Protein 1
Amino acid sequence: MARGHDTSFFVKVSSGVGAGIVLNDQLFHGAGGTAGEIGHLTLDENGPVCRCGSRGCLEAYTSTVALQSMMGLQLPGATIDDIVAAARDGNVSALRALEDAGLHLGWALASVVNLLNPALVVVGGEMARAGELLLGVGPHRAAPARARRRRLHSRGGLRARRACLARRRRTPRSGAHGAPHRLIAGLRWRAWPSRTSPPHPSPGPRRSSPPRRSTSSPLSTRGSTSSATSSRRHARSAASTSPASTSCPRPRRSGKPTGPSPPIPADLSDRRVEITGPTDPKMAINALNSGAKVWLADLEDANTPHWRNVLGGRVTLHDAVRRQLEFTSPEGKGYALKDPDHLPVIVPRPRGWHFDEEHVTADGRPVVAALLDFGLYFFHNAKEQLSRGSGAYFYLPKMESHLEARLWNDVFTHAEAALEVPTGTIRATVLIETITAAFEMDEILYELREHMAGLNAGRWDYLFSIIKNFRDAGPAFNLPDRGAVTMNAPMMKAYSDLLVRTCHRRGAFAIGGMAAFIPSRRDAEANERAFAKVREDKTREVEAGFDGSRVAHPDSVPLCAEIFGDRINQLDVLRPDVAVSAADLLAVDRTPGERTEAGLRGNVRIGILYLQSWLSGNGAAGIDNLMEDAATAEISRSRVWQWINNAATLDTGEVITRELVERIPGGGVRRTGGRRAPRRGSQAVRGVGARRGVPRLPDAAGLPRHPRRRVLSMNVLITR
C-alpha cells in the first residue's frame, strides 16, 4: 500500500502500540534505534498508569489490552474480535469503547501529521479489525462483517492544508469512490473497502481536540474536583487577561457544535413553572398540588442526608410515581393528592459526585451518593413511568466539567441496557452552578447527547463556586452583600445570557434560577415585597429567553405562570445578539453594591440558623422570608471567609476582621426548632466549631471528626 510514497507512517495497534517511519524511502531508526515509540506518547499527564510507568500514554487508551480491561465487566474474557462483533451487533458499551480508542489514536496521529506531513498513514495490527468502528462511524453505518479486515489509510492532513494536499492524493481503488470519511482530530481518514462493500454516507465532524480524561472511579469521590482542573486553569488565566483580548472559551472543541439534541419527550416539553423542595411526604404533596409543571424532588441541597431521610425520600418518590402518596401529620391533619391524573412531572435531583453514602458500601468502600440516589429511583420507577407515557428524568447538580457529564452518560447508558428500556428513557437537566461548568456548557450538552433535556441557571451555588475557585485571587474578587448581587450584575447577566444562547442553538431547554422569596400569609407587607421580587426576577428571565423558571413556595406558582404566559417554551429565541467572553464571566470587580454591617450580620445569622435546622433534620429552612438551603448557607459562610481573608472594608470604612465578626450580637438569632441558638455572636460562632489557623476555604464545609455528618459549619468563617 505504501509503494510509490517516499514518506509514510505505519502504526501497529495490538497489545502494544508501535510505529514505523519511512522518510525518503528509508526506514528511520533514530539515534538509538527506537524511533516510532508512539505508544508512549503522553496524551494526558493525569491519565491511567501505563506499563512503562508514565501516565496517560496512547497505549493505555488504545491497545487491545486497554480495550479488554475497559470491557472486562461487560464482556468478561472477550477478545478484540468478540468486542468488535458485539459492537457490530449494537452493544453500546463496545461501540463507545472503540470510539474512544479511535479518538485517542486520531489525536496522536494528528501530531504525527503535523510533524512529518506523511503522504500516507497506515493502521495495522489487531485493532485494525475494527475497521470503520475505530473511525467513529456509528452502528447504523457499520459495514458488514466481511469488511472487518479492511486496511485504513490517511490521505490528507489538517484542515488548513486540505486544499494543497488534495492535489497529491492518489485515486483510490475501484469501488472506493463512496468510502466513508471522517475528521478525527483534524485527520482525514478513509476506509479501504472491498470491491463488494456498499458505499456509506459521510457523517458529520467530530471534536477536534482531546478532552482530559477523568481518573476517578464511580465509587470514588476524590476525582470530581481534579476533573475540572483544566477549566479552572483556563478561568483563572482569563481572569488576568484584558477583556479586549479574551474570547469566550471553547477549550475542548473547535468549530460549530454538533446538531441539536434529540426531541424532548412530550410530557417534559412544558417547563414554564417548576417548584423545588425536599422529599418528605408533606412537602412533596404540597408541591404536587401546587399547579406547577415540574416538581424538582430535591435529594440534595434541600435535604439533610440522615439515613431516615435518604430512605424516606425514596418511598415518597415511589408512592408519588404511582399516585398513592398520602400523609397524616402528628396533629392528625391529612394530606393527599388533589388530582392524581394531573400532577407535575417528577424530576429528582440526586446528590453530587462529591458526596459518599456511608451506609452502603461496595468492595468495602462507601458508594457515591449520586449513584445510590439515581439507581434506587431508576430501578424502582423507570418502567412504571414508561407505562404512564413518561420517562426517568433527573436534575444533575454540582457539575464542574464535561468529564462528569460523560460519566453520567455512561451510567445512563448502562442503566438503560440493564433494565432493557429504550435509549433516551433517561433525560437530564444539568444545573450550571459552578464557574468551571459555565466555561463548558457546549461540552456538557454534547457529552449527554441523547440523554440531554436542558441546562438550569443555579445561581446560588454559582456564586459560592466563584468564591471557592478564586479564593486566592485577591480583593478584585470580593463580592458585596448577597442582596446586591442580582442577575443584572454584569457577570451574572453574561452567565445567564450565555446559557440561553447555548441551550437554544442545541434545541435544549434553558431553565431559570430559583426565586428564594417566600410569601407570608400573615404579613401583607412582607407578602407584597416577596411577590414584587418574584415578579421582577421572572420578568427578567422571560425577557432573556428562558423557557421556564423555579420557585420555592406554592403561592409563587400562579404568579410565575402568569409571567411566562401562554407560550410553552421559547426555543425559537436564539439570542444571536449574545457575545460573551471569558472576561465577561469573570467580571466580579464590576459587580455593583456595598459590603454593609447588616449584610455581614445576615451572613452569620443565616449560617448559624441553617446549621441548626440542618442538624435537626431539615434541609430547607425559611429564614427572614427566604428559603435557605445548603447553597445559600455556603454563600454565607464563604463570603465572610472571603471578606476576612482579603481585609475587605464595610461601607463605613471599617476593615472586616475576626474580632469584628465576634462582636456581632446574637440577639437576632432566634430558636427555629430543635435547639436554642447561642445568645452572643462570639459564642454562636464558637459554638459551631470556629477554629483559628485555617488559612484556606475548604471546597465544602464539614465537621472533620464526623465524616457521616457533612454539615455546613462556621469553622472556617472567621479564621485567617
Protein 2
Amino acid sequence: MKIGFRCRHCHQKLTISASAAGTCQKCPRCLQEIVVPTPNAHPSVEPPGATQHRGDLRAEPLGSETWKTASNRSLRLPTQRAEHFERTSPLKAPDFPEDGLKILKAFGPAVKKTEATLAYRLGIAVVAMVMITLPLLYFTFVGSICYATYWYYSVGQYALFPGLAGPLPYLVGSAIGLISAVVIFFMLKPLFAPPASVARTRSITPQSDPMLFAFVSRVCDVVGAPFPSRIDVTYDVNASASFRSGLGSIWNSNDLVLTIGIPLVASLTMRQFAGVLAHEFGHFSQGTGMRLTLIIRAISGWFSRVVFERDQWDECLDMLCGPEFLPLSVITWPARSCVWVSRQLLRLLMNVGLLVGGFLLREMEYDADRYEARVAGSDEFQETSWRIQLAGFAWLHTQSQISQLSEREIYVDDVALLVRHHINGMSDAIKQQIHKEMTAGKCGLFDSHPCEAARFQNAKRENAPGIFTLEEDAKDLFTDFETMAKNVTWDLYCQYLRRTVKRNTLQDTQSVLMRYRIGVGTVRPWNEPDYYY
C-alpha cells in the first residue's frame, strides 16, 4: 500500500510505502525533513500543474484552471549533492522527462567567481557617494525655497517695504507665498504620486514545470547565486532577475524573481538559454553592486518623474497662464517660470546620476557577461547575442502585426510562433543591417549597457569553453511549451487592449499565417501582390 501526500516545504507530490508512516524522511526536492503522515491523516491537496495570475482585475472567470498564491519560500530543487537521493530515501524521484537527468548531468563543475576589476571597485565607491549626495541636493534645493520664503516673511519684507504701508507689500507677499507653494508642490508631487497599475503576471510552479525549475536551480548552483523565490513568464523578448519587492527586498538576497520571456525561449537553444540565465544570476553574485543598482534606478526614477512627468496639475497650471485668466498671469507666469527653472536644475542632477550610474552599470554588465561566457562558452556568447537581436527585431514587428490584426478583430493565439515566423522569413539584407549595427555601435556616456562589440571582446578574453554545451531547443525544458505560449499571448491581449479578451476569440496562428501575408510592418491577404520584405 502506498501513501500519497505533499511536502509541507516545497509542496512536491510524493508517494511512499505505508510501512514508513510516522517516520522522518528527507524530501528529494528541497531536502527538508518531513514526517510521513498516516494513511487516514494525509490532507487533501490541489492538483499540481497550476499557474498563477496576480494583479489583474480584468481577468475573466478562471473556469477549470487552478490559481494559487505564489510562495515566497526559496525552492531548492535537485542539485549535484542530491542527485542520487534514491539510495538514501524510499521517496519517489520527481517526474522529470525521460532525458531530464541527462540534461542536468550535462552541467560541468561550478564556475570560478569573477574577480572584481579596479574600475568596478572604484565605480562602486564613487557611485555610492554620488547617489547619497544627489538626494541630499534635491531636498536641500526644496528646503532652500522653503527657507527663502520664511526669510522673506520674517525679515525681507521689512527691509524691502519699511513701514509696510499700502497694498503693495501684501500683494507681493501673497505672490511670493503662492509662487513658493506652487514650486514646492511640483517638486514634491512625484514622490507622493500613486504607483502605476500592477501589470498582469503569470508564474509557473515546480509541479507544472519541474524540469525548468531543476534547470534554473542547476544554473544557480554553478554560478553561486541564490535560487529565485518565484519564476514568472511573460510575452516579452527578454529575461531578467530582480528583487521581488524592490527596495523592500534589498537586505534579503534570496528574495528574487526570475522573469522569462516565452518568445525569447523559443529563439534559443538550451546552451544559449543557460548562458542568459547565468548572466542574469551573475548580477546577484555581485552583492553590493546589485543593491546599489537598485538604489541608482530608484533615485534616477525620482528625478525622471520630477523632470519629465506631466499630469493634470501641469495642464491646469498651463491653462491658468492662458489669456482667459489674464488677471492671474502676474502670479501664474512667474510660478510657471520658476517650476521650469527648477526642473532644469534637477535635470542637471539627473544627468550627473545617469553619467556616474551608467559607468557602474556597464561594468556590472561586463562582469555578468563573464559568467555567461564561462557557462555557455566564449564562442557561443556572440551567437546568443545575435539570436537575441534577431528576436528583438522580430518582436518589434510582431507588435505591429498584432495591432493591425486586432483592428480586423483577428487575435492570434501564439505570439512566440509569430516571432519565429518573422525570424525565419527575415531577408539577408535585414540581417546584414542588424549585424552592422551590432558590430559598429559605440558606448555612450549615459548608456546603461555596453555596445555589443565591446561585450564580444570582453567575452572573448575569457576564452572559456563553457560547462554546458547541449544544443537542444530551450523550449523543451517546459512541460507544455505550446500551451504556455498561448497563455502569455492571452495575457498580452488583456494587457494591450486593457480589457478581458475571451480565450475562444483567439485564432490559430498557423491558420492566420496561411490566410495573411505578415511581413515587416504590413498585413495583407494572400490574394494581394507580393510584398514580403
